[in-house]
Amino acid sequence: MAEIGANIATTCAERLVDLGMKELPYLCCYNSYVEGFEREKGRLSAEVESMRKEIEEAKTRNETEVDPVVQHWLEEGDGIIHKDSKPKKWFGFCVNCFSQYSRAKELESAKKEIQTLIRQRKNFPQVAHLVGAPGMAYHSQEFLHFESRALKFERLKAEIKDEHNHMIGLQGMGGTGKTTMAKEVGQQVESKPFDKVIFTNVSTPVDEKRIRDDVAKQLGLQLEEEKKLTHAQQIWTKIANAGRVLIILDDVWEKLNLESIGIQPGFHRKGTCNILLTTRNENVCTQMDCQKRKIIHLDALPEKDALNLFLFHAIEIGQDCPDDLKKVALDIVNECGRLPVIIVAVAKTLRDWPIKEWQDSLIALRNTEPSRHKIVDEVAMRFYNSLKLSYTSLKDRKAQVLFLLCSIFPKAYEIPVELLSKIAIGIGLFGEVDKYNIARSQVNVVKNKLINSSLLLKAGKECVKMHDVIHEVALEIANNEIEVIEDSKKKLKENMKYSSCIIDDFSNCFDGRQLEVLLIWINKIGSLKVPSEFFRSMKSLKVLLLFSKIEFGRTSALSLPKSIQSLKNIKTLSLTNWELGDISVLENLQMLETLELFNCLIIELPNGVSELKTLRYLGLVHCSIERNNPFEVITRCSQLEELYYVLNEDHMLEDEEVSQITSLPEYQRYHIDGGDFSYFYSPRLDISIKKSFKPDKLQFIFSKELMKSLATRAEILKLKEDVETGQNSLIPGIVSIEHGAMCDLIKLSLTSWSEIKCLVLAENLQLKSGVNIFSKLLELQLNEVTIREICCGRYPDGFLKQLEKLELRHCRMMEARNIKDQLLFSAEMHIKGRGIINRGESG
Asked: Does the pTM of the predicted model rise above 0.85?
């Protein structure tokens, strides 16, 4: 037995010696591992730089969507390039031998990863792809086919399909339905015979830059600032290689210089470019070289179609209309000029009203009344009277004021509902509402009422706009209270209540004592002087929005003029694309409720902002902040209800000695995103999301308890890089289960977490009945996370029951079998390529 024991001991000793000899180089030859790693890192750095140049070249071909595999390769490469080869310190003084040994092993492993990445680099067939551009479905709206217009509709479609017809005109007075017909025809010919159909609103005055940007967007073209080709040439190059293209130019008021936009009708190398323009003026068709027989005229509807359109919107579907009601309805549509846009608005106003009120409305329509412009044209008077009836019949002062507020924007302007809310809240339209988000919800209710009345139209995502005829009538109804100046050479009138203007500079001071709302778009590029007296007379101003129209960068205003402190009643202040510097003058605006800075440069967020007792909304989005920690001021704004701190360039937060923030108010809404600032990226906030937390570089200035609080309440949560929590689970290790853990979370993304073993450690939770975890989660993204299981233990109530998308990248510890076991709760889930799992899609 003793001999057997001796043999075992000898064998173990030999194995230990062999193991020691293998591991000894990591300790003794540490410097050689460092040198080898740095050498390979240099090679990888060159490959990453080469890849980025390929991506930039792809952009010139309009291939702007980077392949996900390539994007991940870049992220992995950047991660290794930024890896530090120095060993950790022991108590901050001497090198720990064990740490040096451990780091040498890490560097050897990283060196092998680099070699693998360099091999992968050679196997990418394509670095980027064309981005899909929005089609005519984006512009679609309700279209009713009228018997009287069937021949004109088919003729228009046939003329458009003829490749020799390069310029076609659709002419008719305002409100006849030109835009609606053009959109419907465009939608029907979009896939055949045309390869691409583009719709853009022209309006007046003509803004060529906006039109170019709109056309480029629909072509999927990213306009580049380069000397070789102008933006117009880039657009034409794209059109010339896009096959058959139809461009619909809507609401043209004057002859356009198509060449300066980038449009050249006719045959080109790989197809044709055809133009359909809609206009009120037949002379425009002639000036734009539309042949006489290629101009299609759209008149008012005949009585039969006009009556049917009215009854379609005024009578509940399936109900008969008595003859006496039809007779009144026929008189009403004749008073509306038999114009579709007017008929629909009036019909929705009178929907399901008794015949007595229809008769009273008819009397009101026939009772012509003078307007501020003393309309003498009979058709224009009918416009006015019909829409004034719809406006008056709202019987809701808030809806009427919101309707008029929409008219202060330029024609065809797509108005973000969130911006409309800030203006409405600023003028106190909803009184002294306790909560900002409650006031916003009331704006949405009233906005929907206006849409349902056809006084407003839906436009884009979370936007509305006015039909140009309704816009004109709204300004008439406002009766000397609203002025919209779209020509920078005109001066602002005095004694207006609401004004908006496009100007080149602030040289024209005026008496604005009656002004409550002022919207200014600045065309100036470069530095701009704001006269110190410009705002001096605006004692009643409640809302001020200053937009610089500069495409990239900011317009320099040196600093806000001292006269802005005279705005004692200002409640909403929004500044976009300004180089401001010192903004300490804002400390004097004691009535301020909403402060929004978008793409602005400031020296610091002034301490006095925390003393603004009425401030409820603070937005710092895509701004450069040169000194001090803005969160030291924000944390003292105890009255704040909503905070938007997104993608800012905050220099002081890069300092390792910046003080840590331990608490913030419990906001009703917050969007906190510490991602990197980029001059070429303008973030758009999704206002449908109440709470979004993506701390990134900000996570190191937030205490663990504050991180926990913000993460627990978020609807969107994105955590990147190792956070030294010492916890092996997200719940309950990092996020509390009190009041339902992450019960509102709809999107979760975790990247590079080496400590975490599972998302939910359910076996250690004392889960009460009704406590939900991830019950609303729609998307789950895990990238380089060492989890083995999504949930350890019994599933909580409603766990992942609404999950639609699961994306796993480089989660090597989680085997495919484990994934399937974790997803047994949903038979509709199927594995899709590249680790993406979508509900209802086959693999």
From this structure: no
